[in-house]
Amino acid sequence: MLPPSLLQRDPILLGLLKNKTNQVACVRYLPSTPLLRNTLEIATNTARLQDWISDRSRERDGQPFAIRLLGKNDIIYMSKPEHFKQVLRQQSSNFNKGPTIHEVYSDFMGEGVLLTNGDRWKYHRRVLTNLFSARALREHMAPVIQRNVQVLTEALYRVIDANELVDFYKLMHKFTFETFTEIGFGRKLGSLASPDTHPFEVAFDEAHRISGHRFTAPVWLWKLKRVLNVGTERRLRDAMAVIDKFLMRTIVGAMERHQHGDRSAKRDIVSIILDTMETSGQRITPGDIRDIVFAGMIAGRDTTADALSWLMHTLHNNPRVARKLRKEILAALPQFAESESYVPSIFHFTSVKLMVCCL
């Protein structure tokens, strides 16, 4: 999902969500043919799907619309923040994650908050909400972010000195992946300062991409490939083996250290979960920890990278705003002009009102 700042201009695929009556109320369908429905139209616009969705949404003044696909569930598209608020917060109990999205993504996401419903969803959501409290952000996450921002800054200076082009979108994804991996699991990948990509990140991107492509592939085809362990499904299985080996080794190691009373100053979300469970007297399995932390990583990595990339894109297209923002930052944080290595805490930016508005 894209950041909330984009919701007013670009419609987002909500996913195969239906209310409990299994009907789509007050949502108009796009015109379609009797047999293929909207399948051919989607197929011919695959390369520009986001633009196509945006065009259809603007034609309808941002009102939700639905499409029918051959052999697939109907899909609802939304673009207005108030509609997302209704579905995701105010009426979330009426929009459970259905069996289709669970079947498509569970091999990758497990049984985390992004795919579950009911009590399990409430439990995972409560744990994640407590983890991302202001205190946890100050004590653990902010220092990790600051260190990785410094590494990112050095990488950008190297590009400038060499007069090279940089794929900023890819760089932002490396930055957020490195950051969320350290925040979640206490592991430093070191790929942000390297031209190479860590095998864990390669496997993550591969598994994420293949799982997403299941939506567009015939169900019988990808299920057959999964049974036969061939093609993309074999690559997905191989990628998940790399991911689970990395995650479970980290989690089991943290649990063993915790059982032996090791309470080092170095903190990560896995350690915080273990401390919380011990205090409350609840039991938790390595699989539960994996699903909780991995869900937070999936939810945060792409959304943050997309938001940062889009911010830089819009500032590039609006140099007047960029100059004004730079002036306000230097006025509020003059250390920027004094040291290239200065990295403020995110809490320092609360005084930079234009930055808050831009984000």
UniProtKB/TrEMBL annotation:
Gene3D superfamilies registered for this protein in UniProt: Cytochrome P450 (1.10.630.10)
Record flagged with keyword Cell inner membrane: no
Record-linked Pfam families: p450
GO molecular function: heme binding; iron ion binding; monooxygenase activity; oxidoreductase activity, acting on paired donors, with incorporation or reduction of molecular oxygen
SUPFAM superfamilies: Cytochrome P450
Family: Belongs to the cytochrome P450 family.
Name of the protein described by the UniProt record: Cytochrome P450
Species, as recorded: Phytophthora infestans (Potato late blight agent)
